[in-house]
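Z., the sequence and structure:
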Amino acid sequence: MASGDFAIYPQPILSDIEFDMDGSLILGFMDRLGHQVGGVNYTPNYPDDDTMIQGQTGGDIIRVCNNGGKYELENNATCTSGSTAGKDKGQRSRQWRILLG
């Protein structure tokens, strides 16, 4: 890709829901932009603009802990009921949580 232009516009899609043995939810999110732009594609202004852009996408897996029937988002890979291997490995990207409210 000669121009080196990138498209970044996170648009989360809830793409998977799993249930853990304790009833907690494991939510998978993907980025809609990847379906819109692809690896290398023309801008939305084509044919007036024939610049090639590369889509930069993200995703996340979030655990919603079941704490006695009350559901709460994990915090630092930790729930009231315990921790996962991700604890104290650094703060995960908050891009999806900000967009989801």
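The first strand starts at residue 5 and ends at 7. Helices lie at 33-37, 95-100.

Let me know what you think.
H.
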